[in-house]
Amino acid sequence: MVTLSRKADVQPRPPRHGLTALLHSRAVHLTAIGWLGINAVVLAVAGDALPFDWSTAATQTPVGHLLDANLALAEVVLLTVLTYWLTRKRTLPNLADRAPERSVAARETLLLLLYGAGGLGLGFILARLAGWHPFGLHLAGSIYGTHEHVSPAESIAWATYNLLVYAVVPLLFFRRRYSAEALNLRSSNRRADSLLIGAILLIESLVQIAVLAPGIFDLTTGQLVLGASLTFTLYLAGAVLPAMIFIYAILVPRFLRLTGSTATTVILGGLTYTALHIWDAWTVFTTPSNAALSVAFLLLTYFAPGMFKTVLTVRTGNAWVHVWAYHALAPHTLIDAPHMVHVFRLK
């Protein structure tokens, strides 16, 4: 095991973790302006309907979709406040100290981002050659319930590809050089982490049920048991663990080392999480206006959840917290089980 280097090129000031510091950050203010700009782009470009193959596309206006996105952001803000309150008495880890010196962190970050872009490119090519949807962080049909056909073979190949490319290979490479603690894979306070997971999971599940009325409750007992188990397993492999390892175990400490800012780290976590969804099956890049709307709704959909996952990691130093509190069970198992029942024709 190679010890993390402590050679000090000029070290940034230790990041301030308080909620007040986060909300007063210039990066947060610029992000808020950017969010308003995205809303303005949608209003200016969308017209009367969005070009996406969503189950709600025919019944909801672009303004309605924008309202939903902004309400989802409001929920993330409230969950962030709750997270800060629940962790206010904890001794918080300084994740920047878990990353190597800045020059090494910069090189590792750049190479990992290039590797991730290459993974998306290769996933596009291989999937298209097989006649499937490009491999991104979500299986076609996830979340928005697009009506594209997805086969069992595509589902398994998607999960296997993402697990290998974004989780197994990066983990094997970095685990030889850094400890489990340095990669945010070990809890420093299991009781506090469990309390936080329970609170966030309960609230997120109730919100998902109230807002989305997920079809999981329409399944038969047999479909529920098999569908939920299959959904949990495939999405854990294809979406949850890849995001956890690639972003929250490896990149987040390096973002914090390089920026010295918790707010900027949270924002970069949200942007990276969004980028990994670029091949979502509902995106349309056939015209400049459709491409602009696709990018806008990728950000409106994934940027806030990606930021909140980063908040959970920064506040606990444990990348597993977001897995159980805000990813594997809610939304994916809760929302996507009917999709897996349809894909595998479970009866």
Automatic annotation (TrEMBL):
Q: Which residues form a coiled coil?
A: none
Q: Which UniProt keywords apply?
A: Membrane, Transmembrane, Transmembrane helix
* Native source organism of the sequence: Plantactinospora mayteni
Q: Which residues cross the membrane?
A: 21-46, 66-87, 108-135, 155-174, 195-217, 229-251, 258-279, 291-308
User: The organism sits in which domain of life?
Assistant: Bacteria
Protein name per UniProt:
Uncharacterized protein
Give the range the annotation lists for the signal sequence: none
